[in-house]
Amino acid sequence: MEHSYDALIIGAGIVGAAVAYRLAERGLRVAVLEADSVPAAQATAKSAAGVRVQFSEAVNVRLSWASIQEYRTFEEVFGVSSGYRPIGYLFLVPEGAEAAYERALATQKRLGVPVERLAPGEAKKLADFDPDGVAFATWGPADGVIDPHLVAHAYLKAARGRGAELFTETPLLRAGRRGRAWRVETPAGSFTAPVVVNAAGAWAGEVARRAGFELPVEPVRRMVFMTGPMPEARGLPLTVDVATGFYLRGEGERVLFGRSNPEEPPGFREGMDWGWLEPTLEAGLARFPWLERAGLDQRASWWGYYAVTPDHNPILGWMPGVEGWVNAAGFSGHGVQQAAAVGRALAEEVVDGRAHSIEIDPLRYERFERGKIVQEKNIV
């Protein structure tokens, strides 16, 4: 069978779902092709669910703040809550890194987002930590968490309500440009459309290769650990020890924590890396000694993939030299917090020819060709 549409979305995670909804809202006939048996089961479901405005680059601040605004009022539009909880993000800035974080703070304040500079003593009122070596903290009271799985499904339901179609167990096997349209071959038949949006997450690089070109997006495995019940979890904001990259937050009566392994090789490696637990805890205990009382809940811990680019920032917009191909990939762990705004911006890109609600030029593929990668400092 051959199916014809105005746009094909590859991937039904939170980003693909948001783009699908906004394109359908603009009147396009949209199909979402998902390789898995259910939507939003990979990085979206396995995310640590954080949303924050505390970035150093203006484009990331704008995308994240616009997304938080949408998640705040989500129920008014979609009939279900996004699960948004402003538990806050607290960055513990080490001595020696003050200048970079002062500049980031100035950028955030210039853009009008809620963020504060706190002395270590003030920050300790929000989260108990050893202040040794901490110069100051930055606090985002509107930062927090959402339910990304619920949000993705709400976008998909709304998209389908506007005529979009979802095809699961439908991986892209091959794709090629035929005249004015792309032809995408799948086990469920072929799909044609003038526009393809690559929102395949960790698989975005492979999807591009199957379409005949290279996109610098690689999968990198990440671990999220969970403690058993402990009193310190109550009201604990997402707190990042910038010196080590260790982070934690409260999740009900438990503490969720993790730290990216800089030595983790790219690739589709599966399963928990329990060997990374000891280095993670070593970094965490130095800053949060009370974690010594925590018991680990192995069954509640999990792993998932980041879709990583060379500069750990997404690739958005039209692919140069590849007609009708739009990138929405490589978020490097920031997809949940930017999905809502990216959905709007990329719908503008497709329908109007160029995103205009938010200037996405710094995140276009061309930055790699020009040697102007995004120098984002607030990477966790």
Automatic annotation (TrEMBL):
SUPFAM superfamilies: FAD-linked reductases, C-terminal domain (SSF54373), FAD/NAD(P)-binding domain (SSF51905)
Signal peptide: none
Keywords of the record: Oxidoreductase
Enzyme Commission identifier(s): 1.5.3.1
Gene3D superfamilies (alphabetical): D-Amino Acid Oxidase, subunit A, domain 2, FAD/NAD(P)-binding domain
MF-aspect GO terms: sarcosine oxidase activity
Domain FAD dependent oxidoreductase, first and last residues per copy: 6-348
InterPro entries per UniProt: FAD-dep_OxRdtase, FAD/NAD-bd_sf
PANTHER family per record: FAD-DEPENDENT OXIDOREDUCTASE DOMAIN-CONTAINING PROTEIN 1 (PTHR13847:SF287), SARCOSINE DEHYDROGENASE-RELATED (PTHR13847)
Name this polypeptide is given: Sarcosine oxidase subunit beta
Organism: Oceanithermus desulfurans
